[in-house]
TrEMBL record:
This is DinB family protein. SUPFAM superfamilies: DinB/YfiT-like putative metalloenzymes. Coiled coil: none annotated. InterPro entries: DinB/YfiT-like, MST-like. It comes from the Bacteria. It comes from Kitasatospora terrestris. Residues 20-29 have a biased composition (Basic and acidic residues).
Length: 186
């Protein structure tokens, strides 16, 4: 007997999908967005939705479970980490004094991801707030080539880095979720 969950999906059309195409909030018919900024924003939105979908239907214990040992990652830890990263990206724009860490010390985002419904609720609230604040700060920059902050990072680089960060962690979320309850799909 194995303590590994059996693999499953809700999808009936394609067995490697998370949900059927007609129920997938990430699917949109028609042509893609026009322009570089809109394209990057569209990809970011897709990965943000993917992360949320990977967390849906799980209780606090499942979200906090470190299901891929020896890693300290959990789905809840990823949510908290991305809230922390969104907050940090605003510092890259104009080098203000760094905002205080949301979860205290380094790695507090993962270490403090405990199976408490209030912690889960707070993490998703933090993520939404930090995403909105970073989106608003970046909206002030129309020129994607503009270099900002002490390191002279371009707005384009920052936008691409955001997409990359979410995409990478959505890959982690795939593995974490499959190990929690066996659910698979993109």
């Amino acid at each position: 007997m194995s303590d590994r969950p059996e693999r499953w999906t809700e999808a009936t059309v394609y067995p490697d999908m998370w949900v059927d195409p007609d129920k997938d909030p990430r699917d949109n018919d028609g042509p893609g967005p026009e322009g570089e900024a809109a394209t990057l924003a569209d990809y970011l939105t897709t990965f943000r939705l993917t992360l949320r979908m990977k967390c849906e239907g799980l209780d606090a214990e499942q979200l906090a479970r470190r299901s891929v040992p020896p890693s300290t990652m959990s789905l809840l830890g990823l949510v908290r980490h991305l809230a922390e990263v969104e907050r940090d990206w605003r510092t890259w724009l104009d080098d203000p004094e760094p905002l205080p860490k949301l979860y205290g010390v380094r790695d507090g985002d993962f270490d403090g991801a405990v199976a408490d419904p209030a912690v889960v609720e707070g993490a998703f609230r933090d993520l939404e707030r930090e995403q909105a604040a970073t989106d608003a700060a970046l909206a002030a920059y129309e020129d994607l080539g503009r270099r900002v902050g002490k390191d002279g990072i371009s707005i384009r680089e920052l936008l691409v880095h955001r997409v990359e960060e979410y995409a990478r962690h959505c890959g982690h979320a795939d593995l974490l979720r499959e190990c929690v309850d066996g659910r698979v799909g993109q």
